[in-house]
Specification:
Elements (H helix, E strand, L loop, with lengths): L3 E2 L3 E6 L2 E6 L8 H23 L6 E11 L5 E14 L3 H14 L1 H6 L4 E11 L2
Parallel strand pairs: 5-6
Antiparallel strand pairs: 1-2, 2-3, 4-5
Helix pairs in contact: 1-2
Length: about 130
Amino acid sequence: MEFHLTEGGIRTKLEYGELAIAGNDDHGYRPFQLMIASIAGCSASVFRKVLAKKKINIDDLKIRTETVRDMHDANRILEIKLHFVVKGTRLNIETLEKSLEIAHRNCPMVRSVENSIQVKETLELINLVD
């Protein structure tokens, strides 16, 4: 990847377009937003693969995030909470929880930050009627 300085931050071109990164919302995505998006995106991707291997079909997956930051230490990210909301038919909460644990252990982004940022996942199941 190659980054270029802009008036308000930096930018790079990626496969899906240009990405502007800045400390100010007016000039691009903030670095902490990209960190959260990377961890949530990776976690969702690995979770989906685990479910597919177990032949578990879901209708929808949403992830809500919360971030705890240390305002006294450069606004460092201390904790990322990922709340997975899974919708589907005839889903078992225990099986989904085990699948989420497997995903946590196998997500490269989560593993990359595990000694500096605590990543906590919670799960909510919405069982749809046949």
